[in-house]
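Example for tutorial group B:
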């Protein structure tokens, strides 16, 4: 018994000794991390903390040490998030397309867009879509970009191809609707805007654009239907919408309402002379049909401040004053101003010729005075 116990103890001693030797052999020394990896890891950590300022320094050091696709993409991402789009684009454009991630590819496209380089944006976005054809956001951007280059037909082609695969993407549908509008395909455009509204895209742009389409199609009641909520969504601050709504109101007989919108547009647009010409002309017409001739004359005179060579406006003022207001002297003055301009026209049309004859006859046969003018014969 004693011998057995001693034998077991001897075995245990040997096993322990062997274990100690084996454990010593398994000790592994720590592997040193190379400097490039350390720089990138530090930069990544700082980026996770949104500290692009310090991250930039580490990425720049890494780039100076070794120019690789990975380093370029990380450095470009840092530049992009600091709005240094030129540097981001310069780095990414030289990375092989196969090495670009989806996010870095988008940053390359957007870097050119944010610099106002539409041609480069179109080029790189087209390349991105060849790899990621269902990226709806980039497809919508491409459609908008080519429309900006007066190539609405090309944008329509892109949009219709995408629409066959996905008819529910709001961004693409918006861009396609706008492309139809710019190509003067108002019937297709308005159908797309109606589709957007059914999808819940009741934004100002969709409502306003739908109203514009219907006004071009002479469906003025439908135009009114969409202009009203669009103007309210703008906080009653969109001058163009106020103007369009005012004109539609006048043309549909909502004269008081139309004048209200035109007055708002006037306040919002001053001193936009081009639009003010149209507004004051429409105001004069509205007041005339409401038989408020004094206000019509006032509006037309305002129109002449923006458009002093408007021959018809001189005639309108003269006629309204002659027939409806007791101011013969003013009527004579404006008939004379009308003839002064009208006679300079090289090829007057039939309507202008008739107006000239009428003005000449009235000046020849009427006794103009400060009171209501009367014919002399």
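The residue assignment follows.
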């Amino acid at each position: 018994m004693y011998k057995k116990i001693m034998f077991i103890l001897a075995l245990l001693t040997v096993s322990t000794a062997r274990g100690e030797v084996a454990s010593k052999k398994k000790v592994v020394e720590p592997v040193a991390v190379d400097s490039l990896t350390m720089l990138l890891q530090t930069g990544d950590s700082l980026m996770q903390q949104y500290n692009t300022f310090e991250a930039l320094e580490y990425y720049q050091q890494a780039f100076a040490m070794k120019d690789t696709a990975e380093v370029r993409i990380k450095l470009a991402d840092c530049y992009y998030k600091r709005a240094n789009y030129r540097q981001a684009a310069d780095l990414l454009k030289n990375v092989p397309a196969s090495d670009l991630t989806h996010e870095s590819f988008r940053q390359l496209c957007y870097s050119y867009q944010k610099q106002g380089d539409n041609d480069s944006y179109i080029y790189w976005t087209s390349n991105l879509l060849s790899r990621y054809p269902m990226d709806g956001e980039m497809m919508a951007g491409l459609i908008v970009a080519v429309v900006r280059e007066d190539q609405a037909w090309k944008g329509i082609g892109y949009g219709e191809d995408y629409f066959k695969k996905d008819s529910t993407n709001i961004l693409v549908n918006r861009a396609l609707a706008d492309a139809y509008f710019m190509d003067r395909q108002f019937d297709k455009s308005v159908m797309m805007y109606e589709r957007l509204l059914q999808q819940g895209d009741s934004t100002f742009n969709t409502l306003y654009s739908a109203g514009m389409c219907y006004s071009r199609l002479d469906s003025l009641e439908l135009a009114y239907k969409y202009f009203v909520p669009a103007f309210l969504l703008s906080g009653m601050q969109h001058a163009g919408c106020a103007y369009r709504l005012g004109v539609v109101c006048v043309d549909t007989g909502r004269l008081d309402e139309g004048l209200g919108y035109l007055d708002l547009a006037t306040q919002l647009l001053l001193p936009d002379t081009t639009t003010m010409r149209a507004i004051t002309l429409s105001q004069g017409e509205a007041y005339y049909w409401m038989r408020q001739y004094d206000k019509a004359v006032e509006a037309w005179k305002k129109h002449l401040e923006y458009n002093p060579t408007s021959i018809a406006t001189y005639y309108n003022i003269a006629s309204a004053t002659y027939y409806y207001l007791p101011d013969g002297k003013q009527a004579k003055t404006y008939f004379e101003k009308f003839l002064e301009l009208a006679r300079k026209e090289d090829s007057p049309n039939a309507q202008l010729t008739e107006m000239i004859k009428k003005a000449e006859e009235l000046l020849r046969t009427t006794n103009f005075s400060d009171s209501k003018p009367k014919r002399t014969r």
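The first helix runs from residue 2 to 25. Compare this with the pattern of hydrophobic and polar residues in the output above.
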